[in-house]
């Protein structure tokens, strides 16, 4: 059996990652593909517990290195217990955030060293990289307005200043520039229907 396809969705809060993932999952399922829709941090019971810990607001704060290690602790569990097995079964894995998010948030946003993130990636998923990554690019003002409109309680990240998200966004764009063969940058101000059509067109080439 051939390995499945590994597609990831990246971008700042409110960019539309989860919406596009949902729409694509539906479209691919309708075409007869077996889809594994999952997210990071999280995606397994253990990794979801780590997610709750990583994202919860807390009065005593969280050192950036702790944040980074929690993200990779969750990722290691997710990859070995869910993601790699689904790919081995030939499924289309649609993952809402992956290691690029650590590069953009903990690297670009928090200023942690890129070499350390590379090293952690090589521990958590030594032989795995997305086949295609959709970067939903949106101004932080617009993204945060959308995210805060969602009427969930938000999380620790949504409390960050606009300058933080500007660094995250810029770092995502840098990653996309470095790996143009893997990244597809989508203008996230488009309508959901336009984004779905653009994404399907890109996937047809896979
Ligand atoms: N293309 C779009 N145009 C306008 N609003 C959108 C679009 N995509 C998503 N939204 C809305 O913006 C909010 C954030 O979308 P969501 O998919 O949850 O973003 P993310 O997962 O990137 O944080 C939701 O309320 C969603 O309905
Ligand atoms: Mg989301």
Describe the protein's architecture and organization.
With 206 residues, this protein is α/β, with parallel strands linked by helices. The chain has one domain (5-204): Rossmann fold (3-Layer(aba) Sandwich), CATH 3.40.50. The chain is 54% helix and 13% strand. It is built from eight helices and five strands, in the order βαβααβααβααβα. The chain has helices at residues 17-30, 45-55, 64-88, 99-109, 114-124, 140-149, 162-178, 192-204, and strands at 5-10, 35-39, 92-96, 132-137, 183-187. A five-stranded parallel sheet has the order 2-3-1-4-5, with helices on both faces. α1 crosses α8 and α4 packs across α7 (162-178). It is globular. The two termini are 17 Å apart. The structure holds adenosine-5'-diphosphate and magnesium ion. The site of adenosine-5'-diphosphate has 16 residues, from α1, α6 and α8.
In short:
The protein has helices at residues 17-30, 45-55, 64-88, 99-109, 114-124, 140-149, 162-178, 192-204, and strands spanning 5-10, 35-39, 92-96, 132-137, 183-187.
In percent terms, what proportion of residues is strand? 5-15%
Radius of gyration (CA) equals 16 Å
Order of helices and strands: EHEHHEHHEHHEH
Care to count the β-strands?
Answer: 5
Helix content: 40-55%
Oligomer: single chain
How far the N terminus sits from the C terminus, by CA atoms, comes to 17 Å
CATH architecture: 3-Layer(aba) Sandwich
Number of helices: 8
State the CATH topology. Answer: Rossmann fold
Which tags fit this structure?
binds adenosine-5'-diphosphate, alpha/beta, 206 residues, Rossmann fold, globular, binds magnesium ion
